[in-house]
Amino acid sequence: MLSATFQEFAHPKTASQCKSAIWPVAVRPDSTQLIRSSTSRYPPGPRPSLIPLVGNLFDIPKTQQWKTFSDWGEQYGDLVMIQLMGKKICIINTYKAAQALLTVKSSIYSDRPAMPMVNELQSYARQRKLFDMGFSARNTSRYHGIINREYARLLSLLMDGSKYDDHIKKSIDAIVMMIGLGYSIVEDDPFVRIAQQAQLAMVSAARPGAYLVDLFPVLKYIPEWLPGASFQKVAREGRELSKKLQTEPFAWAISQFRKGEAKPSFFKALMDSERRTEQDSEHDTDIRAVTAVMYATAADTIFSSVLTFILAMLHAPEAQKAAQDELDRVISHRLPGLDDRTQLPYLNALVKEALRWELVIPLGVYNGYVIPAGTTIIANQWGMAHDPGTYDQPYEFRPERFLGNHGLPDPASIAFGWGKRACPGRYLAEDALFLFAAMTLTCFTISPVGKGKEGIPPRQYSDGLASRPVPFPCSFALRHPKAKDLIDNNLEYDFEGVEEVGGGE
Ligand code: HEM
To answer: CB of 477 within 8 A of CB of 443?
Structure first.
């Protein structure tokens, strides 16, 4: 059954679509010739090297691999097969194929963790259920008060105009630590520092293909002093950081809980849950791991999506203006909240477009794929979001594409991954991005610092599992005197009434 689906996508584009235009084919003089016949059960792809085991190693660029994968997609079709060290890797470049292979058929994945380097840091498969419970749409809405309060403070800091990215990063750290543990961060916070280090180790460890151990789990048994086994060192350091991340903040949270002083949070919801008994050490181990994963994954991803939103506002001032007009029309006398979302269709479309325009996680890696046995799957999320066959003029920032009955895939269904391994923090991420956009656009105009087209910062993104814009200057200018009043009045507003976060779902 699956092979039928696989075969459905495992053919190249028609001759007219296919740049090489020689399907089925054997020979072209460059390294990207098609090498398989139409009767092959595998999709086509660039020709692997004749040197044993090297495969397509030298065809894969060291940075921004997703762009090369998209070029291959145009050349070979929805699915592209490459080889590394004798191992087959299938790249999915279109939403349609990803839906069929990764979502509809997601039950065929093994539960086996995808990447040993990452899983050294976050072996929490058993704990996924707790995550899903804590961050269901309903439970996430109980954290809205925390996000509101922090953003209200952030607006007043953005008025000073400088170091906007520092202010935003701290605000998101504060949100994540409060939601995760009920913890208020301080200047140069020690827990935030550990979370950042662990996150960095995880991100560099998870760069697809960065470490062969991702493809050959057996390599993890090689001692780290052997030449070429530097991944062992990274994994060891990652394990140490992971341990620190799991123990230090948790010890603080437990002491608060025992004193009866724990604030509503993900941690407290799990501690209060009916599943836990006083002597339940297994459940406590799960809570420790899962809260650590939460603050290691949430802050940087939300930060990246917010930076992309800001960069997009510099590239598409007319979209910014349209969202501001909508906000002024619908809510004029107060700051917007998440409850206003249904009244703000244009802003909703703008946030979707920000998730599509650049991807926080450009590539997803999946293992345990059954057919062909042992194939590693790379979901080229970036390629899917920029596929002109799905989104017209994909490099343009055009929220209008998501207005009315557009029939387009929701970018969230690409940006947050697939099937069983899809992002459990999706609702929190979307809410945090939406509220950031709504509050900042109500109060500020976001503009480039420089003049003219040259003043607009380029769309340059970092590499790694999670990508973000390289730092760029911009200005937040108050839109009108009333905006300052809105900000000042909200600082006095008491958002303390954050609801208890219940277990429930
Ligand atoms: C805009 C922000 C975010 C984006 C775009 C994003 C995207 C993703 C994607 C694509 C995956 C799947 C990775 C894979 O292919 O294996 C993922 C996994 C994950 N995300 Fe997010 N994420 C975001 C925010 C968050 C937040 C706020 C949290 C925590 C509350 C979170 C927690 C996780 C966890 C724990 C996983 C691993 C899930 C598993 O393997 O079962 N993410 N995320």
So the answer is: no
